[in-house]
Amino acid sequence: MKIKTAAEEDFFIEEIEKIARSAGQIVMAHYARGAAHEFKSERQVVTGADGKSEQLLKERLLKIHPCGFYGEEEGGDIAEQGDQWVVDPLDGTENVSGYPPLLAVSIGLLRDGKPVLGVIYDPVHSTLYSAQEGGRTRVNAELVETGNQTDPSKAVVGLDFSSDMGTRARTLEQLSRVLELARAVKVFGVPSLSLGAVATGRLDLFFRPSTKITDMVAGVCIVRASGGRVADYDGRDWTIHSEGVIAGSSWMINAYLPCFK
Known about the structure:
The chain is of the alpha+beta class. The chain has helices at 6-32, 48-64, 168-181, 191-199, 213-225, 250-256, and strands at 37-39, 45-47, 68-71, 83-91, 104-111, 114-122, 127-132, 138-139, 142-143, 156-159, 184-186, 205-208, 229-231, 245-248. The longest helix has 27 residues, at 6-32.
């Protein structure tokens, strides 16, 4: 599908935003009653909202743009050719019956393996992030951009741990080095919203050891469209094959990169 005009581009992303809001209604219905969860692996939980939200996303996204589809619950293979929707129907599942009150629906579009569109919806706070490659990031229709902080000692840094226990010792070592530089460190438990916070300048940097693809595609597009950069732990531009992620301004990434070696 080729979007040829600005009007068509606007209509396309507006339709995706509507779909994100509809999925958010499913999430909020479960959140309001404190949905019970089950363990889908040793340390990963899932709720009824995850499956219902993903079903809605798949049906409606494929209706407006038939192509490949990869969901957090359904899984599959990531395509390096052509278009593919990549979605997390409920990012922050641990928070549904816990704290903090942060949840998100994340919708990304890969084109030949590259993030070209992202929509993230925070239904708790009715906050909608959206961007397309070549455009600019908007939050609730207002243009935003990454922060301009250049002093590492004044930076607010976001972190999310992986459920993979094999990454945690290294992450703690990295965190200890980050804490020697940063003003503060925040843990949201919702990687897509952490990337959204980088795009709006509320976080100066965000890092995570394993980049679960469904958490990343939309947020990577949104950060880049806001003027930020997304890299791996070696400082190379993030790709779908990267195993670590650092997001922020180029200046801030360069300042903190030694912490991740």
